[in-house]
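FORM 7B: Structural annotation worksheet

SECTION A. Query
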Amino acid sequence: MPPLLLGYLVVINALAFGMMAIDKWKAARGARRIPESTLLLPAALLGCVGSWSASVLFRHKTSKSSFRWKHMLATAISIGWVVLIVREGL
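SECTION B. Predicted structure
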C-alpha cells in the first residue's frame, strides 16, 4: 500500500473516531451536537472503520435506526471506494 494512501486512511479514521467521541461527549453534557451529515462524511470517505469503532466503543447512536441506516450507506460508499482503488491499482 502506498505510504500516502496509508497515511490518509490513518488520518480519516482517526478523524471519524474523534468526531464520534466528541459528539458522544457533547450529548452527555447537553451541548450543541455535531450534525449527522458531518459525522457520516468521513465514514463515506474511507473512515468507516474509525466511525464504527467509536460507535460501538462509546455506544453512540447505536439505538437510532435512522442513523444506523445512513451509517451503513456511508460504509457501502466507502467499500465502493476500496473497490475502485483496488481496481485502479492505487
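SECTION C. Observations
DSSP finds three helices and no strands in the chain. The chain has a mean pLDDT of 95.

SECTION D. Sign-off
Analyst initials: ____
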